[in-house]
Amino acid sequence: MQGKHICTCRKDACSNDSQCADGGVCACRTTAKDARGFNICLAGNCRVDADCGAGGYCSPTWDLACGESNGVVGYYCHTARDACVDDSDCVDGGKSGYCAWSVDRWKCAYAVCL
Known about the structure:
Oligomer: single chain
Mean pLDDT: 81
Number of domains: 1
Number of strands: 8
Low-confidence stretches: none
Strand content: 35-45%
Helix content: under 10%
Largest sheet: 4 strands, mixed
Strand order of the largest sheet: 1-2-4-3
């Protein structure tokens, strides 16, 4: 990520990152059929790559239990402890998964919620 997030959609819980506690990101939310939703603060430990230290980077994560069904749920730094770096690292016996944040590191998940 390069630069700060600034929302231009309807103001609700936040209108910019500085209104989110503990390094969270202010996300402009959309709902079905591209209608504007609520701005909410997403969990996380970074907002931009620089928050992750030298050579580190900040990535969005889907929900560990439901994948993309819930959209992006937070932004977290990658570290040497991660079990995956991106979705291409998450193939198990031909089954494709996704790389998601889990408590203190990134790991592969294979859940899908309808």
